[in-house]
Amino acid sequence: MTDDSLIHDPDGGLPRLLRIMQRLRDPETGCPWDIEQDFATIAPYTIEEAYEVADAIERQDWPELEGELGDLLLQVVYHSQMANEAGLFSFDSVTRRVSDKMVARHPHVFGDESRDKSAEQQTLDWERIKAAERAASAQGGVLDGVAVGLPALLRAVKLQKRAARVGFDWPDVTQVLDKIVEEAAELTEARDTLSQAEIEEEFGDLLFVMANLARHLDIDPEAALRGANAKFVRRFHYIEQELAARGSSPAQSDLAEMDALWNAAKRRDKAAKADG
Question: Closest Cα to residue 74, out of 100, 99, 108, 48?
Fold first, then answer.
């Protein structure tokens, strides 16, 4: 008979979670759904959980963050269990590898290097160590190792940072702004004369340069867009509330009325910032 005492121990900690995953994946007594999964089918959940962690932080919902971090940890345990079953690696080897990496990348904390350096210098040292690691792992190209599965805006910034390290970069933000104007003009022309696929390509070029502008301005484009999304939601909620107070709704309104309410929401936001 299987001993599940650890599974039911609320103070079992990480060993408890590891044991739970082992049981879920047991081919004879586990959960049919969990048994059927593989790395590819679980990967989307891993990405989703990482975004839910970021969302909880954005909302400063700390109890929610506690739960989301647990869900994200479960993803690491899940992948590690599947790898262990396939003889690839184990949870212990995962923790050992990341621990070794952190020690190697912080010689100013765990080695004999001085801690008396700026955050900028520490970032340069970090990138130098990472470049040496890539060289040791036979990732010879400058852009090798930038994960394809990253959000597109984030990957664009990472690709551009890599290229900039070897001098492939505009030296001034003005040139980036000029390029945005150029790409916007090409997109406008494409809209009227080219195919849908070509229009999409020009749109992608414009987004790529926008990501470059974000990098030059030291802006996280993902965070900036999340902020813009949140602002849109907040202002549209204001429109809905004001229309409801008039006995109406967006579907019963028109663009002129909603645009006026949108401008009122903007004024409210500006007043709130001024008071803050």
Answer: 48
